[in-house]
Amino acid sequence: MITSEAPRPFYRTGRSGGLMGDIDDQRGFLRELVGDGRPALALTAVALFLSGAFAIFLAIRREFLPQDVTFLGMTAKDLCAIADCRIVRFMFHDRVAFGGTLIAVATLYLWLAFFPLRRGLAWAWWAFVVSGALGFGSFMAYLGYGYLDSWHGVATVALLPVFLTGLVASRPHATGRVKGWLRSVDGLRAPALARIGRWGLLATRIGARSGGTRHPVSWLDRGVRCGRFRIHGTDAGRPRSGQSAARAAHRA
User: Fold this and answer.
1) ∠ CA 153-154-156 to the nearest 5 degrees?
2) How far is CA 32 from the centre of its chain?
3) Which range marks the domain in which residue 39 is found?
4) Taking the model in full, what pTM does it have?
5) What does the alpha-carbon distance between residue 53 and residue 63 come to, in Å, rounded to a whole number?
6) At residue 121, what are phi and psi to the nearest 5 degrees?
7) What is the mean pLDDT of each run of 10 residues along the chain (252 residues)?
8) Per the domain annotation, does 48 fall within a domain?
């Protein structure tokens, strides 16, 4: 005699060890999307990488952003007629450096998210915290020297919640603690040349951090800013018109 049975599902509701592994269908879509926080941090890295690539692309094409043209009162071609185009070249050099820095930070973020943070190492989470605080906090420097890049502002406001979500979601998982390589057993037993190399890398990063800290501070000093360019404003710090600023830059 043939009997009929209800088809068995591939997995049961709640937690199960079926074909799809452990499943918790009570979790919401957003929580599942955020996961342990690393996807949000990786998304931040991808956004930084694309932003850096776009900045370099603009510099290669020798183009200003619309807000650049509005602030200066002239195009890149007009400004290039002043001082043998040295000001424009410096601006593009600065933009390439900015884009390269974003790409480097994005690469570091991806490595941190997919390797040490995946292992739950606390130092990787703190690296995100310190880097994010300095990076997003540097946006406030725009309030000091009077030029607000609206595209940069919109990108910062849009990306900051994603980054913070990744930090909050990943914090409970980042509990592992390990000694630094220089203080580890392997590091202490390593050849002298390897240890010197590690100390050299560490000294390089300390120097880069010192230079990065000094850069925004010098720009916030109106005397340094106006003395170097004489194009951002009058002695009172107010922007000049395009032609008068160009003449002042030529005299400088």
Assistant:
1) 65
2) 25
3) 31-177
4) 0.71
5) 14
6) -80, 125
7) 44 44 62 87 96 94 88 89 90 92 96 95 95 86 73 88 95 88 83 90 81 59 47 43 47 44
8) yes
Q: In this structure, is residue 95 part of a structural domain?
A: yes
| Residue 55, in any domain of the structure | yes
Domains: count for the chain? 1
Asked if residue 203 is part of any domain, the answer here is: no
What residues contact 235, with CB distance under 8 A and at least 6 apart? 226
Torsion from C-alpha of 58, 61, 62, 66, nearest 10 degrees:
-50
DSSP state of 183: G
Q: Dihedral, CA atoms, 214, 219, 222, 223, nearest 10 degrees?
A: 60
Exposure of 172 by Cβ count < 10 A (0-12 exposed, 13-18 middle, 19+ buried)?
exposed
